[in-house]
Amino acid sequence: MNRNSIRAAASKVANQSGVSTKDVRTAIKSSIITRQTKLILPERSVFIAPERAELYSQMRIGGTDPTMFFSLTFNGILPVELPNGMKVAILPDIHSPAHDVRLMWAVKAWLFDYKPDILIFIGDLADVFALSAWPISPRIPTDLNMEISVTRELLDELIRISGCRHTFVIMGNHEDRTRRWLQNFGGKVANLSNPQSLEPVLSFHEMLGYGPADHITFIYDRKQAGGMGGGMTINRVLKLIHGTKVRPKPGASPRAVTDDFMSSTLHGHTHRLAENFRQTLRGVLTSREIGVLANPNHPYLSYMDLLSNFHHGFLAAEVVNGQLMGNIVPIVQITTGDNRRKSVFYFDGKLYKAADRG
Ligand SMILES: [Fe+2]
Ligand SMILES: [Fe+2]
Questions:
Q1: Which residues crowd ion ligand 1, with CB under 5 Å?
Q2: N or C, which end of the chain is more exposed by having fewer CB within 10 Å?
Q3: With bands split at pLDDT 50, 70 and 90, how would you rate the model's confidence at 310?
Q4: Which ligand places an atom closest to the C-alpha of 227?
Q5: Domains defined for the chain, CATH in brackets
Q6: Residue 304 C-alpha to ligand 1 middle, in angstroms?
Q7: What distance in Å separates the CA atoms of residue 232 and residue 221, rounded to the nearest whole number?
Q8: Mean pLDDT of the residues in the chain
Q9: 21 C-alpha to ligand 2 centroid (Å)
């Protein structure tokens, strides 16, 4: 890599990451970054903090070196291997644009502090309300274009603030609304492809506008036929899916999913927050459902039972001894001095508070 290409790459990366050009140039030239990464950096415009670069080079996505993993989409259960010390943030159902905007400020502040290497959205990132099969009240305007652009903006912001190296978006039943709508009403154009990207025009990832140069992977069902059969395994022992089972009590759904797979599991979809641990002959199996980050008062979500089954939260994790050790972070409501309700959470000695305004 010559001097000019380093300079050009550095200014491109600096513009996007907010890091100074000098720091980026030093990082690119640093011996900690592998030759492969140096080659890929100008192409993919991602800044890697030198102290995290070594971890990144040890990661494997689908058995492949991450610098060589250009797959924008994957169908099925994607195996991911993460080295010790790697940090992961897993965010549950955001239901953009019906997300809790005030609460999201606190989540962004946490992502900035925590600096996860990997960011995982475990489904229902977007609500896709405009394509809902349920009867929609004429009082609620629908605008798919607005939903998609707000989701793209939010996703970009979360990725940028976290400084993560790779993002995985597991499809939930809400993103699957686009596929179901096409199947039911537009089957003849379902495979219409963008001549440049060769991706189906109305697929969720194509509508959001990401391409293979972006460090993001959208995980779909194995047969592309339907449902939410896609997910990930982390270090072969933990299975992540959007969630298929909804039991009436918190904790019962992930337990049932673990019974199905006989492995540790983690899912969203239920909008509840709970964890179980079970000792088996194969070691301790963990079962978690990690809540929701949507706004329960948003008109898109008026069907929900808010009294007992809507728990704000997410999961912070780090790989220790080859295992992803995760902590559910519950978000609770407190009453402030001036008698207002406010969502807060506590992490690593710091209190994160929702913003006062949206
Ligand atoms: Fe869901
Ligand atoms: Fe959901």
A1: 124, 172-173, 269
A2: C
A3: confident
A4: 1
A5: 3-56 (no CATH), 66-353 (3.60.21.10)
A6: 12
A7: 11
A8: 86
A9: 40
